[in-house]
Amino acid sequence: MPRIFLIAALILPLAGCAQFVSRNSEPDLRFGMGYRGTDDPCRRVGATRYTAPYISRDEDLVGCPVDFEGRPEFQTRLGGREVTRTDEWVIYRVPLTGE
User: What pTM did the predictor assign?
Assistant: First the structure.
């Protein structure tokens, strides 16, 4: 019985260091309205634990579907810089236009 407690005392602290993230699971993303209009597939991205490192006062955070063919044009036209991507979304920082 004492052996079980010894093993548990050694293993449990290490278990707290492990990250249990499924390769196919999407991170927590919170989406708002379409960025350029209601029918825009690129959407504003809100603050979550996943997006917090990418949020800036001077830029909007915008997510476009990975399979959206208009992504290159979106990026070039609005000056978006890719900051991260998931299986389904590419997340950009887009400079504020002041509009």
Answer: 0.71
Which among 35, 26, 37, 25 is positioned nearest to 93, based on CA atoms?
Answer: 35
Record the tokens describing residue 36, joined without a space: 């350029």
Instruction: List the pLDDT tens digit at each of the 99 positions of the chain.
Output: 555 444 444 444 443 433 333 344 678 899 999 999 999 999 999 999 999 999 999 999 999 999 999 999 999 999 999 999 999 999 999 999 754
* Cα 63 to Cα 66: distance, rounded to the nearest angstrom: 9
Tokens matching residue 62: 């915008």
The torsion of the CA quartet 76, 77, 79, 82, rounded to 10 degrees, works out to -50
**Positive or negative torsion for Cα 95, 84, 68, 43:** negative
